[in-house]
Design a protein that fits this description.
Length: 150
């Protein structure tokens, strides 16, 4: 038996198994009920019985795989914007909560100021992300136009 697919996804394994069997390749599902199949640690393997079908089975599984997901150019910036927004909310909340105590007014002011800076950082990162998307779109348009001119 030769393993042609090793995955954590039950549905992906079943889809591949059905496609292989539909092409006349005899398959075996290995580890279908492992302790963590439905969790993060579990896995399922699809193996073929006949070694002569290996290359054909691998080609079939490869054609079934979806293309890799490309993240947008703004993802790097927007991820950091989300973190800055979360930090701003927490810091502003802590600052206002501490303001009720007379002994911690200066600390409260400092924490609230950091919250404000985090909020400004959030807005800047958000705008930089949109700018990155516009630049990526402009570059893609330029590449397309240059290919058409050739």
């Amino acid at each position: 038996m030769i393993t042609v697919l090793h995955t954590h996804s039950v549905s992906w394994a079943e889809s591949a198994r059905l496609a292989l069997e539909g092409e006349g390749i005899e398959t075996v599902v290995l580890d279908p009920y492992s302790s963590g199949t439905l969790g993060l640690a579990g896995s399922i393997r699809i193996a073929i019985v006949d070694a002569k079908d290996e290359q054909r089975a691998k080609r079939i599984v490869a054609t079934l795989r979806p293309p890799p997901v490309e993240t947008s150019a703004s993802w790097w910036w927007h991820k950091r914007a989300a973190l800055a927004f979360g930090a701003a909310i927490v810091l502003i909340y802590l600052g206002t909560d501490m303001a009720e105590s007379e002994h911690r007014i200066n600390l409260s002011l400092a924490i609230s100021t950091l919250g404000g800076v985090s909020f400004v950082t959030f807005v800047v990162f958000l705008l930089l992300g949109y700018r990155a998307d516009r630049r990526a779109a402009a570059l893609a348009t330029q590449r397309t136009e240059s290919l058409r001119e050739r």
